[in-house]
Amino acid sequence: MPEVQVKPYAALRKYVGGAMSIDVQIEPGQTIEQMLDGLGIPPNQTRIIFVDSRAAALSDKLEGGEQIGVFPAIGGG
């Protein structure tokens, strides 16, 4: 099965046991949203996603070998 490397940032790390990055097995053609859901990361908690250093959307499909950065919304005032 293909794998992707997921790097959750800030508060999203709590969903993966605090890890800075994890390798995740995927089905080819699986969307980023499906992959995040499988990790227990609520897609509505994510705001910025990068795949191989390029901006991506939850609906983008994965094939394997990608590096995915997932950032939460950042509060401020």
Walk me through the structure.
With 77 residues, this protein is mainly beta. The chain has one helix and five strands, in the order ββαβββ. It has a single domain (3-72), classed as Ubiquitin-like (UB roll). The protein has one helix at residues 32-39, and strands spanning 3-8, 22-25, 46-51, 54-56, 67-72. A five-stranded mixed sheet has the order 2-1-5-3-4, with no helix packed on it. 16% of the residues are buried.
What keyword list fits this structure?
mainly beta, 1 helix, 5-stranded mixed β-sheet, 77 residues, Ubiquitin-like (UB roll), single chain
What does the secondary structure layout of this molecule look like, with pairings?
Elements: E1 3-8, E2 22-25, H1 32-39, E3 46-51, E4 54-56, E5 67-72
Parallel strand pairs: 1-5
Antiparallel strand pairs: 1-2, 3-4, 3-5
Counted by DSSP, the helix tally is 1
CATH class: Alpha Beta
State the assembly state of the protein chains: single chain
Helicity, as a percent range: 10-25%
Ends distance: 44 Å
Which structural class do you get from the secondary structure elements? mainly beta
Taking the sheet with the most strands, its summary is:
5 strands, mixed
What overall form do the CA principal axes indicate? globular
